[in-house]
Design goal:
Layout (H helix, E strand, L loop, with lengths): L1 E7 L6 E6 L3 H10 L3 E7 L16 H13 L4 H11 L3 H15 L4 H6 L7 H13 L2 H58 L5 H35 L2 H13 L1 H24 L4 H8 L5 H15 L4 H7 L5 H13 L2 H57 L1
Antiparallel strand pairs: 1-2, 1-3
């Protein structure tokens, strides 16, 4: 597999070399063996020819990693951005970087230049850079953002990975059921009609259903396609998404876990901004967008309480934005002056609890789903063959 590796060596400047390797680590090892300093490595896009169907997502984490490496190598901010722009192959990403460089040449700050492209640089990222401009520690702040984003992506990956097997099992079971009902059952119905005789009630109902599917499969397929299309369209509506989110939040178990996940994002983001030197009220305003509407109202009230001189822990306790354990850690942070570190610990605790719950749920759900799919398929098969068993018994 081919990998594109961005490297530095001596006075040659930033270069992109192509290497054939088994994985990213192997590609980086080959580049280092050739005397290069590795900046970043990624798999080569084999199907990149032609016009893309949609605008590529800006690789924010990769951009931050490369920028930190170049700044650490001694390049100025503008030089590092120009080097990244020169080696960028995708036109839309290159255009975004060009706009940022143009804003810097006009005398604007880096955070202001990033804010001109809100689709590529979220408000949280811009605020992180803005906080670093007061302390002059851009590379350190960007490294902290990379760690933050990696941790949040790690939670999502764990949830997605844990859900793959149940989804595959459910899809496979559904396809087997469709095959039985659309192809096997109608043919058994014809066989039993030719044989004649009375069928058991459940077998007769199953055969009638098979007849119905065989006679109306085109209409049913059209209706199912229209229904799926309608559901896909409705799922894109913000009002439907809000309604679905409200329904899920009302479920006791899922609602609690979604609350913990949002609180983990909230405290992780807040701790990162505070560690970067941003005032607490400004940080609270920025991270409010990570919470759902009802929790944003509580956060606004908590911010007002803090602005009026109240402590962070009391405001979070009063407006239900912290669990008892989180409150203890917040109070420790207020006494020790390590509030950002305590918020990181709160986020880690929430993330661990969410991950453990997902793993326990999947371990319980998988066998239940397997048993349900097996039972459903088994019932259909038994009802199809039951008349044959009765016929064999009567012959004996």
């Amino acid at each position: 597999m081919q990998f594109e590796v961005k490297v530095l060596r001596g006075n040659e400047g930033l270069m992109a070399i192509m290497l054939e390797a088994a994985d990213v680590c192997d590609a980086e090892a080959q580049a280092k063996a050739q005397g290069y300093t590795v900046i970043a490595a990624r798999a080569k896009q084999r199907w990149s020819s032609g016009q893309p169907w949609h605008r590529s997502a800006f690789p924010l984490v990769l951009f931050s990693q490369e920028l930190v490496a170049l700044l650490g190598a001694g390049l100025s901010l503008v030089e590092a951005l120009e080097a990244l722009t020169e080696k960028e192959e995708q036109s839309d990403i290159k255009q975004t970087l060009t706009l940022v460089i143009s804003a810097l040449y006009e005398g604007h700050t880096f955070s202001h230049a990033l804010a001109q492209s809100p689709k590529d640089f979220p408000a949280l990222y811009v605020a992180t850079v803005q906080a670093s401009e007061k302390t002059g520690s851009l590379a350190e702040v960007l490294s902290r953002y990379v760690v933050y984003q990696s941790q949040m992506d790690g939670i999502r990956r764990k949830v997605i990975t844990s859900s793959i097997y149940p989804v595959i099992l459910a899809v496979a079971g559904g396809l087997v059921m469709l095959f039985l009902m659309l192809f096997v059952v109608p043919r058994f119905s014809q066989i039993y009609e030719d044989i004649g005789g009375d069928l058991p009630l459940m077998s007769r109902l199953l055969m009638n259903w098979g007849h119905f599917l065989d006679a109306n499969w085109q209409s049913l397929l059209t209706g199912a396609t229209a229904l799926c299309g309608g559901l896909l369209f409705v799922s894109t509506l913000p009002s439907f998404r809000q309604w679905l989110e409200d329904v899920v939040w009302q479920l006791p178990a899922l609602g609690k876990r979604m609350h913990l996940y949002q609180m983990a994002r909230f405290y992780r983001s807040l701790g990162m901004l505070l560690q970067g030197g941003m005032p607490v009220l400004g940080a609270l305003r920025l991270v409010g967008g990570l919470l759902r509407a009802s929790m944003r109202e509580q956060l606004a009230l908590a911010s007002t309480s803090i602005q009026e001189g109240g402590s962070i822990s009391n405001a979070m306790e009063k407006y239900a934005l912290a669990t008892p354990l989180a409150l203890r850690l917040l109070r420790v942070g207020e006494r020790s002056g390590q509030m950002s570190e305590m918020m990181e610990r709160i986020a880690a605790f929430y993330e661990d609890e969410t991950t453990r719950w997902v793993e326990r749920f999947i371990k319980l759900f998988e066998p239940l789903l397997m048993a349900f799919v097996g039972l459903a398929i088994g019932v259909v098969v038994v009802l199809m063959y039951f008349p044959i068993f009765e016929l064999a018994g009567s012959i004996q």
